[in-house]
Specification:
By secondary structure, this protein is an alpha+beta fold. Helices cover 43% and strands 14% of the residues. A hairpin with a 2-residue loop joins strand 2 and strand 3.
Length: 185
């Protein structure tokens, strides 16, 4: 009789352990799903912030005729004739200030590693074929020789870029006096 009680108690413990095992597996699966959803949400926020930085830079470039000239000269593989304000070259480089990263030749916009997951970041980390990549708003961190270390919404860590590719977000206005027609007479 004692042996039978022992066997039934042992069976009950095994059933309880099996129930606890199923509950633990279910809880860990729910935890994994929650973490996956949080990660996807995080990546979506980073993609949105990156797209906003690209869009802001494109708007800044399109609204300034000198920056637009440099951008289109790069698209046509030509050199711009304007001397623009570039941090560390002809203006003072300031940490924590926004600049426009604009390449004049084919390049990758962000480094290959480390980068966020997602097709947008994979595309931005690959070198473009024939034309320079879109401009990007970056925040200056420090100068490192002929390079500048910058932070971007598109990259998880800071990276270095050539000072030649950094431009001030606002350029000086060309104030050529307006001469009415036939004013030289």
């Amino acid at each position: 009789m004692k042996k039978l009680e022992f066997v039934t108690e042992l069976a009950q413990y095994k059933v309880l352990l099996a129930i606890f095992g199923v509950l633990a597996a279910w809880a860990s699966f729910e935890g994994w799903k929650w973490n996956q959803a949080q990660h996807e949400k995080y990546i979506a926020q980073k993609e949105e912030a990156c797209q906003q930085a690209i869009e802001t830079a494109s708007n800044d470039v399109q609204s300034d005729r000198f920056l637009k000239s440099v951008y289109y000269a790069g698209l046509m593989n030509k050199k711009s004739r304007f001397q623009l304000k570039q941090p560390g070259i002809n203006t003072e480089f300031q940490a924590n200030k926004d600049y426009i990263l604009m390449h004049s030749q084919p390049a990758s916009l962000i480094p290959e590693s480390p980068r966020y997951e997602g097709s947008l970041f994979a595309r931005l980390s690959k070198q473009t074929d024939n034309k320079p990549p879109a401009p990007l708003i970056v925040t200056g961190k420090k100068l490192v020789g002929e390079q500048a270390e910058v932070i971007s919404a598109c990259s998880p860590k800071s990276f270095t870029v050539s000072r030649e590719n950094l431009y001030e977000t606002t350029q000086p206005i060309d104030v050529t006096p307006y001469l009415p027609p036939f004013s030289s007479f």
